[in-house]
Structures are given as structure tokens and as C-alpha cells.
């Protein structure tokens, strides 16, 4: 009698223990599932962003060397003599009104001092302020592929007010290209090409490295200079720099 | 009471769609910050749309907003799958409704103002519409799915 009741209790306890263990393992499994779910989501999100930012499935190419303010690269657009004692680098934005103000002076100065100053133009479109500045830079670069960078550069500054608020600038710029006697189809394909996009992006990166605060920013022989947009300030600056070298 | 399988499956599908939208928007956002045009092989208006003056609102790129939006929906969904609370579903529904409104606006801009279509943007319109249909169904049948 005693024996039987003992066995019964024993059995009951055993059954209970098994139940607790079952419940524990079910809870454990649920926990594993929940942690697993979050882990999968985090891995997918982080991994996906990492893959995309590495240029996965994109037009991204290995970044070219970013030029510095006291160095001219083969990709740079330059005017004046390469052997000139001075080098003037401008970071500019085709849509920025101040850059438009400087344009005439800079053009005259670089022509008058073409033997003394090696002028370099780099794009620094302020995309958030000027939505058309970057497309304008692409247009100038695309024209440059057909040998007319400076012609497009001049046209863009001269007609800044005409295209600055345009919505479909691509067709406007196409019109300019045709006006300059460029091949329109070639211009369109260059305008959209990753080579042109990357060139502008490289210029921007160069300006960022140089800590360009705004546009236009000038560097004379690697030193940041801030002349007024009149001819006299520019020529004084250049004459002083030439005198200092002698 | 744990979720029924049917609701759970729906939740996972919903999360996958949100994830697809997230990758899409993030890709555009990254391209925006790199200053590169996205690869567009089928529709030829990507650079027109993604560089238009409508691609940035108050200095914030639209693509980045989209990226944050999809991530929010995704996280709410996963949180709901983790422990189903009504408020998570409701929040996701509200966010998706705003997403749908934004989508309608952007599709309108592409069709009638910019006159160019961007493949990635249209894909995003598709994912948000899908999310909305899901939410609509999920919401209406919430009781049916949860308590049987």
C-alpha cells in the first residue's frame, strides 16, 4: 500500500518535472526565434547598406585621385601657360550669382596674365542651394569632351539667369551645345555618362578636402585668397605675388 | 494568445516588401550623396528626376527620407512580429498612409511636371502601394486573424 502510493507520487513528480522542462524549452525556443528574427533583420539592413555603399549593382567605379589645390592633374581644365610662375585654382558653381560676378574679371585677368598665371577651374556645385549647378557642371564637362569646355563655361555664366530656374535644364544645355557647334547626340551621351559624373564628383571631393567654404573660392599657389570681384583687386594680388617671387 | 500562422506569414511578406523599398531608397540616397547618376537601363529619366529641384526638400534629399520611412515601417513590422501589440500595427499603418500620399505626389511630379520617369522611383511607388494594400487588409481583418 505504502509502496504503491510512493510510486504514484514519484510518477506525478516525474511527470511534473517533464512538463516544466517542456515549458522551459518552449520558452527557450521562442526566445531563440525572437533573437533570430532581429538578428536576421539587422544583418540584412546593415549588410544591404554596406553592399550598396560599396557600389554594388551601380555605375560606381574606383575613385580617381583627388587633385589638391597646389597640383594640376591631366583631367583639370586649365587656361594660360603651364610654365607660369603662379597657379590660380578656382572652385566654382555655375549657378552661384557671386561666381557669375567674378566670371568676367577672372576671364580678363587670366587672358591678360596668361604667361604669369596658370588658371585651373574646378567644379564645386552647391547642390542643396543650386539644384541646376551640378547639371550645368555636367554640361560643361560634356562640352569639354568635344573640346569646348571653356566655350560652354563662358556661355553658362553669361546666361546664368536664363537657365538657373529652369526645370528641364538638360534640353536647355543641349541647345547650348548645338549652338556651340557640338554633336548633340554625343553631348547627350557624355552628359549622362559616368565618366562626366565622376569627374564632377572628383572636383567636389577635391574642394571638400581643400575645405572650400563656399563659391567661388580661389587658391593662389596653394594659398587661399579672397580678392574682390573687380579687376584691380585681382591684378594687385597677382602683381604682389609675382613681386614676392622675385 | 500568439499570432495565427496566417497573420504571421502576412507580416513576414510585409516586412520583405518594406526591406525591398528600403534598399531601393537607400541606393538612390547613396547615389545622391556620391553625386553620381543611378544606373537606368529601362526608363531613361533617372538623372532628370533624381537631379531635379524636387529631389531635395528643405535641404534633405527625398531619397534619404524614403530610406528612413521604409526603415521605420520595417522596424515596426519586426517589432510587431516579435510581440504583437496593436499600437505597432497602427503606427505602421499611419506611416504607410503618409508614404502613400508622398508617393502620389511624386508620381504626379514625374508624370506632369518633370515629364520624366525614374525606374527606382516607380519601383518605390509600387512597394508603397503594396504596403498600403497589405495594411488595409491586415487592419480590416485584424480581429479575425488574432482572436479565433
UniProtKB/TrEMBL annotation, chain A:
GO molecular function (one): oxidoreductase activity
Occurrences of domain Thioredoxin (ranges): 57-243
Keyword Amino-acid biosynthesis carried by entry: no
Coiled-coil features, chain-numbered ranges: none
Family annotation (InterPro entries): Thioredoxin-like_fold (IPR012336), Thioredoxin-like_sf (IPR036249), Thioredoxin_domain (IPR013766)
Keywords annotated in UniProt: Disulfide bond, Membrane, Oxidoreductase, Redox-active center, Signal, Transmembrane, Transmembrane helix
Signal found in the keyword field: yes
UniProt xrefs under Pfam families: Thioredoxin_4
PANTHER family the UniProt entry points to: DISULFIDE BOND FORMATION PROTEIN D, GLUTATHIONE S-TRANSFERASE KAPPA
Family: Belongs to the thioredoxin family. DsbA subfamily.
Protein name: Disulfide bond formation protein DsbA
UniProt source species: Candidatus Uhrbacteria bacterium CG10_big_fil_rev_8_21_14_0_10_48_11
From TrEMBL, chain B:
Domain Vitamin K epoxide reductase: 7-139
Main location: membrane
Entry's localization field: Membrane
Annotated transmembrane regions: 9-30, 57-80, 92-108, 114-139
A Gene Ontology cellular-component term: membrane
InterPro entries in the cross-refs: VKOR, VKOR/LTO1, VKOR_sf
Gene Ontology MF terms in the entry: oxidoreductase activity; quinone binding
Topological category with respect to the lipid bilayer: Multi-pass membrane protein
Keywords: Disulfide bond, Membrane, Oxidoreductase, Quinone, Redox-active center, Transmembrane, Transmembrane helix
Matches recorded under SMART domains: VKc (SM00756)
Family as reported in the entry's similarity comment: Belongs to the VKOR family.
Protein name: Vitamin K epoxide reductase domain-containing protein
Organism for this UniProt entry: Candidatus Uhrbacteria bacterium CG10_big_fil_rev_8_21_14_0_10_48_11
Amino acid at each position: 500500500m505504502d509502496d504503491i502510493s510512493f510510486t504514484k507520487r514519484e510518477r506525478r513528480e516525474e511527470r511534473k518535472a517533464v512538463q516544466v522542462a517542456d515549458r522551459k524549452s518552449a520558452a527557450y525556443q521562442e526566445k531563440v526565434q525572437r533573437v533570430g528574427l532581429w538578428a536576421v533583420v539587422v544583418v540584412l539592413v546593415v549588410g544591404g547598406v554596406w553592399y550598396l555603399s560599396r557600389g554594388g549593382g551601380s555605375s560606381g567605379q574606383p575613385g580617381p585621385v583627388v587633385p589638391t589645390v597646389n597640383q594640376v592633374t591631366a583631367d583639370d581644365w586649365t587656361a594660360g601657360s603651364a610654365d607660369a610662375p603662379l597657379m590660380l585654382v578656382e572652385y566654382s558653381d555655375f549657378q552661384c550669382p557671386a561666381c557669375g560676378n567674378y566670371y568676367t574679371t577672372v576671364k580678363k585677368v587670366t587672358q591678360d596674365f596668361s604667361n604669369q598665371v596658370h588658371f585651373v577651374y574646378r567644379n564645386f556645385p552647391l547642390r542643396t542651394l543650386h539644384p541646376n549647378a551640378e547639371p550645368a557642371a555636367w554640361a560643361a564637362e560634356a562640352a569639354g569632351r568635344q573640346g569646348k569646355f571653356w566655350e560652354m563655361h563662358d556661355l553658362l555664366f553669361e546666361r546664368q539667369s536664363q537657365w538657373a530656374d529652369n526645370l528641364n535644364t538638360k534640353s536647355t544645355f543641349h541647345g547650348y551645345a548645338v549652338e556651340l557647334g557640338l554633336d548633340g547626340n554625343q553631348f547627350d551621351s557624355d552628359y549622362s555618362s559616368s565618366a562626366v559624373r565622376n569627374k564632377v564628383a572628383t572636383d567636389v571631393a577635391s574642394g571638400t578636402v581643400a575645405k572650400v567654404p563656399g563659391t567661388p573660392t580661389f587658391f593662389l599657389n596653394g594659398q587661399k585668397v579672397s580678392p574682390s570681384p573687380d579687376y584691380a583687386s585681382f591684378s594687385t594680388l597677382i602683381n604682389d605675388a609675382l613681386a614676392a617671387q622675385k | 494568445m500568439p499570432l495565427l500562422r496566417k497573420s504571421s506569414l502576412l507580416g513576414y511578406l510585409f516586412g520583405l516588401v518594406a526591406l525591398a523599398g528600403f534598399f531601393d531608397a537607400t541606393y538612390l540616397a547613396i547615389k545622391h550623396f556620391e553625386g553620381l547618376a543611378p544606373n537606368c537601363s529601362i526608363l531613361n529619366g533617372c538623372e532628370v528626376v533624381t537631379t531635379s529641384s524636387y529631389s531635395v526638400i528643405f535641404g534633405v534629399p527625398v531619397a534619404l527620407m524614403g530610406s528612413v520611412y521604409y526603415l521605420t515601417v520595417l522596424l515596426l513590422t519586426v517589432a510587431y512580429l516579435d510581440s504583437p501589440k496593436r499600437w505597432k500595427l497602427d503606427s505602421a499603418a499611419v506611416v504607410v498612409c503618409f508614404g502613400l500620399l508622398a508617393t502620389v505626389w511624386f508620381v504626379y511630379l514625374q508624370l506632369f511636371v518633370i515629364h520624366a520617369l525614374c525606374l527606382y522611383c516607380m519601383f518605390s511607388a509600387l512597394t508603397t502601394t503594396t504596403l498600403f494594400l497589405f495594411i488595409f487588409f491586415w487592419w480590416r481583418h485584424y480581429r479575425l486573424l488574432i482572436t479565433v
